Amino acid sequence: MPATTFPAFPEDVPTHPLLVIDYERIKARNQDEIDRLWEAGTKLGFWYLKNHGVDEEANGMFEMGAETMELPMEEKMKYEQGDDGMSFGYKAAGANAVDATGKKDAVEFINVAKDDALAWPKQARRAYPSTVNARMESTITPFIKKSLDINNTLLEVFNDKLGLPAGKLLEKHSMEEYSGSEARVIKTIPTPTEKGQLLGSHTDFGSLSFLHNRLGGLQVLVPGVDTWQYVKPIPGHAICNIGDALALFSGGILRSNLHRVVPPPGYQSTLIRWSLVFFTRPGNSVPLRALVEDSPIVAEAVAKHPEKDFETGSTSYEWFSRRIKYQRINNRKGPETWMASRGTEANPEV
Ligand SMILES: O=C(O)CCC(=O)C(=O)O
Ligand SMILES: [Fe+2]
Known about the structure:
Oligomer: single chain
Distance between the termini: 41 Å
Number of domains: 1
Structural class: alpha+beta
Number of strands: 14
Bound molecules: 2-oxoglutaric acid, fe (ii) ion
CATH topology: Jelly Rolls
């Protein structure tokens, strides 16, 4: 079972401070807190979230992840994602590239679709290992429901700040429509000689990510700074970030920032690294484009930058499955395959 206490993040390693947003105050629609969330979402696209009330469910998810990763490889591979662009299921370490050279990633993970968690005991999208099924009702569905609740509240706040009609962003993330929304538990075995990327530099594919980290390793590339900087895990604080879909809907006002995972610093590099994410993504049929007809604020942002392209011509499903598919080593033909997996980071103006 993953440990719940960890050696501290070393003091002499520089980190990038994120704004700390208090979820209780956001829920109460405190204007100062909303303004700080807006600042975080528009400047870097990353922030800490405290008072989110999901620690217990997150601990259960880490246990589910550990139980799953302990299954024999042959068993896990029965639930592998495959090479066609589906994300749900198991991904072995080394199945994805981390860069254009085709260097392999080092992270193993299990992804559970929000659609399966909400439909349980019916199967919506795919079957899972027994360790997932055993904890669907007790652990996974409660974690996913709480995470959805939090991300939906944040979406409502961004909706209003963007001057969109009430409920517009929630409509694009309907609970009923199938989507790429999923929970992910990631395990990374320490690799003493590895200094490079464990999970390649990327922007997130959907709208909002809600991340629970205990060891360091996550790094962000802050606008205007040319070196990667660690984000230090803080107990009880989730790390939240904006993905491509919200950046596109908002005409680039909200920022989908590059990030990656490298070995944790100092003594932490000798430990198994566990992380947990819930990704909120738009419904499969939703076109990814700036919502210019719905908000003068978005329309103005787009008009100010005619050089930028917010018309992807893709639905959320197409965007998401393309990115998953071309990260896969099995689909690799050359550096162009990696380029085909890129999102808004390939268009750094967005
Ligand atoms: O493990 C982490 O800290 C980050 C994971 C991540 O960025 C992702 O899965 O998209
Ligand atoms: Fe990510």
